[in-house]
Amino acid sequence: MNAQALDTAATESLLAFWRDAGVDACFEDAPVDRTHVAPPPAVKAVAKATASVVALPATGDAAAEARRLAAGAETLEALGEAIAAFTGCPLRDMGAKQAVFSRGNPRAPILIIGEGPGAEEDERGQPFVGKAGQLLDRMLAEAGLTDRVFITNTVFWRPPGNRTPSPAEQAVCAPFLERAFFLLKPKLVLLLGAAAAKSVLSTEDGIMKLRGHWKEWRLAEGNVSAPALPTFHPAFLLRTPMAKKAAWADMLALAAKLDAAAD
Ligand code: URA
Question: How far is the CA of 160 from the centre of ligand 1 (A)?
């Protein structure tokens, strides 16, 4: 093997190692050696470093801009365009290919909220189109809800490595999610997984405690509210088939409540 072939093989092997370790996006030009452990800094320097870590990058300004853009959207379609034009979410610069807003019926009586787009969603520009989405679609079809849902997420850009979005990233995107809620005015909301449930309901309770219990999601402004049901995320169901029974019970409870609301 010549030297160039060896280099290529070594590079491919290193890339495969990173991919298997969950590193699937590059978002800085220069590599950062995070394995280097600096000697303990002096007390004064610690205070300074803490302040710079705690200060979130212009989240306040970004959220204000998100609120302004969201408020200007009079339809869900316009809201999707406003999200695509928004540059304030840090996830946008972390390797996401495009904004992913919604799919489903824009007059649906049920709003479904997931965590954030994954690799497949990032590629195709629609939420829940990967394996988890296929499971969700099968459950919706079995419950007779296929055309009765509008599906979105708490954040609209794929978090690198499919990590959970941070509360700060969710907060920046929240004005768009709230506007979607306001414009759709759904009868019911289904919250998929802990990240969506905690963010929408502003609670620290875990999904094991929350799932299956109806809560109220009420916007601070605009007099919009709806019963919201936290349930397990379909990606969790794929890893934990034993949890499917409880999630199916939640799906049936959702369908039954919608039927009752129509009476
Ligand atoms: N998981 C989510 O939470 N949302 C998606 O859109 C896809 C997977």
Answer: 13
Query: Does the reported pTM lie above 0.85?
Result: no
Distance, CA 241 to ligand 1 centroid (Å)?
A: 18
Q: How far is CA 261 from the centre of its chain?
A: 28
Using alpha carbons only, how large is the chain's radius of gyration in Å? 21
Question: CA 79 to CA 85: how far, in whole Å?
Answer: 10
**136-184 per-position pLDDT tens digit:** 999 999 999 999 999 999 999 999 999 999 999 999 999 999 999 999 9
CATH class of 39-262: alpha beta
- DSSP states of 57-90: TTHHHHHHHHHHHHHT--SHHHHHHHHHH----G
Q: Is 32 exposed, middle or buried (0-12, 13-18, 19+ CB in 10 A)?
A: exposed
Question: Which residues, 6+ apart, have CB-to-CB distance to 126 below 8 Å?
Answer: 100, 102, 103
- Write out residues with Cβ below 6 Å of ligand 1: 114-118, 121, 127-128, 130, 132-133, 153, 235
CA distance 87 to 244: 38
Integer angstrom CA distances of residue 16 from 24, 29, 31, 162: 10, 20, 17, 17
